[in-house]
User: Fold Germin-like protein from Cannabis sativa.
Amino acid sequence: MKTSHFLLALAALALATHLACAYDPSPLQDFCVAIDDPKEMLFVNGRFCKNPDMVKAEDFFFSGINIPGNTDNAVGSNVTAVFVDNLPGLNTLGISLARIDFAPYGLNPPHTHPRASEILFVAEGTLYVGFVSSNQDGNRLFAKLLNKGDVFVFPVGMIHFQFNVGKTPALAFAGLGSQNPGVITIANAVFGSDPPINPDVLAKAFMLDKDLVQQLQKKFGA
Assistant:
């Protein structure tokens, strides 16, 4: 009897170990609705793979990360992304890169990457950066003033920002843990959604006057 119990426990442990090691692949897009007819399929989780015999060195190469981005915009920053869209060799590797240029007092507004953590390296200038933890952790702000040569990490999914506090342009490079990390800029998503969120919802959520909400929707919706 004891032997049978031992074998049963051993089998259960083996099954539990197998289930613990089994998991769905991390999503690489915002959503992927299931479809039965393959003729109507448009996208898969990731990209289709090129025939290995057809792969060239150029598939793993990107040029232009040395070129400054245009910061002449409302927030005074520009992100040059090196994702799987412009570097096909990144497919399935789980990494990507971005160059972030800042005008004096330029801001990379509060945003989140739903599929990647980010590590930021300051190449020029001084940046005030930070992220906010989840509701469960009390929405704590972790912020730091970074100078040339400093590094800061933003955990996956956390709302974060970078602000150039100097009178001269600043430059940073970011490594991200996904070939397609995704970007949700908070203000654009909330006030610039298409179609717009009912202003009564936003007025109550942000404790703002409804007229102000509608003004913000016009600004970001445009």
Observations:
- The beta strands are 77-82, 96-102, 107-112, 118-124, 127-132, 141-146, 151-154, 159-164, 170-176, 184-185.
- The helical segments are 2-21, 186-191, 199-206, 210-221.
- The domain at 24-182 is CATH 2.60.120.10 (Jelly Rolls).
- The mean pLDDT is 89.
